[in-house]
């Protein structure tokens, strides 16, 4: 529950000789005694050097209160009583979150029974497979269809992926970018993760049991563990399947000749993004379930604050609940990530981005934190673009990413712990999972690539720029979604488009090219188009090659040969290395050098066009006289450098006419034959 600031500022938790915790506020202590409160504790740690920032945000006003026995619904009565107190602003049950993965999972080299996934009734059209290619030497990359799907496996469709390989041509990550995985513990010693783990060097080189860096947490070398009632809070990370699998999708080390790849795992030169393990799910040996024998600790809120205060700018959250209890924790992260205690930017992005799994209930019921508006909510697709059977859906989904499927071939391949929490050997270190839990880290990894590309060394990069670009770079897959069209977000996330600036027109260059009739010119298209990423551009040209203009393309050189005076439109498409393109239409204006005005077609049947020099831009007076000298038309037309003026003559009788053009005190006469 949350106290108002006046009361909360005065609370001082003290444990008496009888073991009862007192707040120092008599009315609260009396009420807690009456309700049988067994424990009260801060939701958020003080935060060490970030204490004042946390207090300013009001995080110190939140407390977890444990009342009576759940069997007699004491907690419900306590909510009602506390909620009526004038100095309490909010009361809600401590949420129990679950990890959002499908029960389908498999260790490599181990026998495991797979539960079949529900069959989709909608059948995707068959599309031609592509020839596979792999830019890095990790042997498991060929199993990660979710990065680049070549359509070479039965039931898959080429392109139903995150289009990662083109992105890797631009960036594969930067170590300045830290992604916090709020989840089960990450196997920080895993041979495919260790080099990309965030390391708190002050704690690693410090004294055990001492908060060496003053951040309020002891021994947090690779992150921190919130243990709830099962384990003490500690810097000791207990590696678990779910968190390790998500971490591998984000940043397994690339190009190291072993295992699999991570979306932002670098190029094998120590240049991947860094993973911070914020463990809020811990082992629960008393409970057997399909989610790795883990349980949520209820201390997730403080993990967001920890991530913000210790350098993370992206959070990956593969868990959900129907309770929206962590708004203020998420708001704190989004506002303060990437800054020091005074709000000065120290990270690659000023502010943070929170990426969340939408959940696997195949429901449109909102799940949190995904449905909290500032978060990026990730739905799931299969390897044929269709909705994954378990994925949630609705207007609260932001976008989609690969979810996996019911077997191993179409599930998501990533890292597993090589040892159990007690240190005993566990598996080969790799395996399969499916769920929006797996879709989520794909998007978190792409967000990390975006910060690597656009944020590092660019202090004006903020979360809104990332989220807007991420959404705008998605691919619309509604044609594959049947009744779920429009209910899995704006589209399928696309890494290649997200990190690539498309080509653009050089702004100071116009789109009109003035020539003389029968002239031959060579134009360098690189003077009209540019690519912010420095890519070499490939050009395609359509139009022209009629009776007025001959068009040829020699690499980047556009060759124009005017055959007669007049106007022709030529469309030019510039494409960069990732397939992004821009198209522009150029007006090619060919004038008779001996004439102040060109009039065409002549003879004419319906519309007569009048083109003048490039200095003419506005209204022009025109008159038509028949062969007897009688004026049959007196009007004004608009003539632009890029657009001729037009005169409707279809109602005139056939014969010879004289056109008089009046402009700037001049008269220009032309003879016209009307059919």
Automatic annotation (TrEMBL):
Domain Peptidase S8/S53 residues, every copy: 176-469
Residue ranges of domain Secretion system C-terminal sorting in the record: 599-672
InterPro entries: Peptidase_S8/S53_dom, Peptidase_S8/S53_dom_sf, Peptidase_S8/S53_subtilisin, Peptidase_S8_His-AS, Peptidase_S8_Ser-AS, Peptidase_S8_subtilisin-rel, Secre_tail
Keywords on record: Hydrolase, Protease, Serine protease
GO molecular function: serine-type endopeptidase activity
GO biological process per UniProt: proteolysis
Pfam family, one: Peptidase_S8
Enzyme Commission designation: 3.4.21.-
Family: Belongs to the peptidase S8 family.
UniProt xrefs under PANTHER family: CELL WALL-ASSOCIATED PROTEASE, SUBTILISIN-RELATED
Protein name: Thermophilic serine proteinase
Record organism: termite gut metagenome
Phylogenetic placement of the source organism: unclassified sequences, metagenomes, organismal metagenomes
